[in-house]
Structures are given as structure tokens and as C-alpha cells.
Amino acid sequence: MDKLAFTPKNCWDVYNSKKDEAEIQKLSARYLDFLTRCKTERETVDYLTERLTAAGFDVGGFKYGKGFKSLQGKALFAARRGSLGPSAGLHLILAHTDTPRLDLKQRPLQEQSGVAQAKTHYYGGIRKYQWFARPLALHGVVIKDDGTSVKVTLGEKPGEPVFAISDLLPHLAAKQMDQPLRSAFEAEKMNLIIGHRPEADKTAAKKTAAGKNDNADSGTGKQDKIKSNILRLLNEKYGIREEDLYSAELQAVPAGPALEVGLDGSMLGGFGQDDRINVFLALEAMLSNLADKSATPHTQCLVFLDKEEIGSEGSTGAKSRFFEYCVQDLIEAWEPKARFSEVMLKSRALSADVHAATDPDWQDLHEKLNAALVGYGPCFCKFTGSRGKYEANDAHPEYVAWLRGVMNKAGIPWQMAELGKVDSGGGGTVAMYFANYGINIIDCGPPVLSMHSPFELTSKADLYATWLAFRAFLNAK
Ligand code: MN
Ligand code: MN
User: pLDDT, tens digit, for every residue of 297-337?
Assistant: First the structure.
């Protein structure tokens, strides 16, 4: 019976050699650095561009054996030609570059009660209460009307001031305490405190000296001197005016570096691991394959998309034609006689997205036979969706079987999981949009604790196992 039963393996037991240990620590250190540096889509695509270019990928597309294209600095498609040509099918890994956070409104600046604030509009599925009373940084771009792009990163360098949203003191929270969580935290009260000191006013100083009471700004906001001071500082630092913020994309994100977690340093904590852990691992998988000079059979593609967290809309999201355009270019460059439909129907893909790990304190929301555990390797998720698999890509059993074969042959621990108990919630990924092409696709990625929070947790062992899993998938026959 024991031989016939399936038991998921703990990655720490499987990867217990000195060599594995060294690899785990090396990969984790590189990942923490990536996570610390890349907190927006654009920063992620910049990082990818840098690494791909350094590895010899052509920035202009697919004229040579390996190249990439990006769109709006938020989506990127990279490919490495296989020995069989595109008509044998592509091996694709898809991951998303966006992360739930707070976006600044287009007209963000206001002054009230002695502080200047930036108003926000949250992006994606956040738990609002997690964003109050914690250090936040500002990342993004401001595009001026002459087309100049100004990159903004504030609150990350040691010694640099951060930002924060104030939270209600418990002494005055009596009414709020009785409200349901859904309505207790108002989005319009999620205003980022960005300053407090009024602009120095020489005329006011004179008036005060003459004994007149200059108290026009005591909470009335009539003179907005604090806001004026902020505008002056922004102008000094970035050469921008208030109107420039209309064409800006600024995001408030948790300030500070990604960190090791636990006395044993076995876990990784940081913002945006959904889904940058998969962006990073897909890239690492493809680049580490390059050491092997013999071409792998299938053309390997990485597809990095934006807007997954808000429904995959927009020109850089999974519902856009960007992917199609790139594949058309690739076919034209590498096998012009191949038909697009033929390539799609033979392709295999991993929708590389994180999976909910069983939360030790909320075990009752998971169905344990079909729940993921941290440390047990990449999770395959045959279907996502909710309420009776509604809006799910349900991967075909033939494909699941093929993948099992690939993982087992490479000795990689893996687990099969679904998101929580039936009818307790759910969620979607980009898988269904790519299934529309006839591509064989399944969701696959490491388990995460505190998903969508400012400090998500993953296991170093899962990081390593998922990297090996992506490599094995890209190289498979
Ligand atoms: Mn995701
Ligand atoms: Mn997500």
C-alpha cells in the first residue's frame, strides 16, 4: 500500500547535499536583491532587459537565435530558438509583472490639518488595513509634456525619508471597531502623508514681527503653504510641476529591502512576490540553460505581462495582442512557412503564478488533501476560478500526466493543489486567455503565505525546486 500511495516530498529533505545548500543560498540572495530593486512593472522590465541583454539576447527582436521585445516598459516577451523550430510547438512560461499596491491619483496633492497628503487609488486586491502606519516608498515615472520621462524612487535609500498613511488611534476607534472589515477602512482615507513643513514666507515673518497674528493656515488649508513647499521640493529634485502629475504613474509600495525570515533564515519575506518570484525564476531558468550550448528541442519563450491583478486588461495585459504580435515576428524570423495556428496547437505552457500556501492559523479554510504546503515544491493547479470552476482553465489530464513525467524524471518534488475549500473564495490567473489559442496550459508556481500583503512569505526550498522545475519544463522533449 505504501508503495502505491502518493506522498508529497519536503524539498528540504530532497535537497540536503552541500551543493544543493550552496545553490539554494546563492539563488535566494540573488532573488532578495531582485525583489528589493523591482517594486513596479517598469522596474521589473528594466531588470529583465538588463539581464537578457547581458546574456546576449537581441533587444530588437528575433533576427538571431535569441531575442526579446517589450511594450511600454511593462510587458516583455523573450525567446530562444530550439533545434526543432517553432512549428514543433513553443515551451512558454508566463508570469505577471504587476502587484497589488496603492497608486497615486492623477491629481493627488492636498493639504489639510497641518499636513500635505497624496491621495491614492488602490490597485488590485489589497487588504486595506495592512497599508496604514507603515513606512512606504514612492516608485514610478512622471512624463512631462515635452516627452521627457522622469524616474522617481523615493524612500528607499538609507537615510532617505519615507512616507506613511496615518491610522486611527484606538482611543477614537470605538465606532470603527463595530464596523465590518469591508467598510471599516475607507479608500478615500488612504492618503499618504508627504510633508508637514510650510514654505518659508518672508512677508509672514515681517507681519509676525509687527505683532500681527498670521494663523491663516491652522487647518483651514486656505494658503496651502505645506503643499507649496512639496511642489517646490519636487521641482528642485525632478524639474516637475503639479500639472506633470496628470501624466504620471506613481505607486506607493512598502519601503525597504526584502529579507530572510525565521531564526533558521529558511524563508523569504518581501513585497510583490506575487508574481515576481515567477518572473525571476522563469528568467533564471532560461538563462541558466544557456550554459548548455546544445540547443534544446523546443523554442523557449518567457512572457511577462502586466495588469493581471486587475483583470488582464489594457495593451500590456494578457488579453492584449502583444503576445500574438511577438509570436508572429518569431515565426517570420525563424520558420516563415510555419502557420500560427499550428504553432499554438502544439505549444505547452506554464501559467507561472503563486499559489496560496496552507496558513497555519487558518487551516480551516483549506481542504487539506488538496492544499499546498510551504516547502513541498511548486504547486500545479489544474483549475482556478470559483463557484463550480467558473472562469477556470481546466488543464487536460494528458498534459498533467506529461508534466508529472517531466518532474518525476528530474526528481523534482511537486504538489497538486487547489485554492482553498470549495465555495470559500477563489481567484483567476492568465491561464484561460492562453488556453484560448489551443495551448496546453496549467497554473504552476511556489506556495506563498500572506499573499497580496506588503510582506509576502515564501520558502527558499520552494524557490530552488521551482527554478529546477521551470528548467526541466523548458528543456523537455
Ligand atoms: Mn498572481
Ligand atoms: Mn495576485
Answer: 999 999 999 999 999 999 999 999 999 999 999 999 999 99
- Ligand nearest the Cα of residue 99 is 2
For residue 23, give the nearest of 468, 475, 471 by alpha carbon.
Answer: 468
How many angstroms is it from 372 CA to the middle of ligand 2? 16
Q: What is the pTM of this model?
A: 0.95
Cα 452 to ligand 2 centroid, rounded to whole Å: 6
Type and span of the H or E element at 446: none
* Boundary (domain end) residue, out of 254, 287, 316: 254
- Cα 172 to Cα 129, 168, 176, 298: the distances in Å are 16, 7, 8, 62
Question: Ligand 2 centroid to 308 CA: how many Å?
Answer: 7
Domain limits at 453?
11-99+271-475
What's the gap in Å between 274 CA and the centre of ligand 2? Answer: 6
Q: Which ligand is nearest to the CA of 101?
A: 2
Cβ-based neighbour number of residue 324 at 10 Å: 12
Nearest ligand by distance to the CA of 278: 1
CB 471 within 8 A of CB 285: yes
DSSP per residue, 333-365: HH-TTS-HHHHHHH-EEEEE--EEBPPTT-GGG
The answer to whether residues 76 and 109 belong to one domain is no
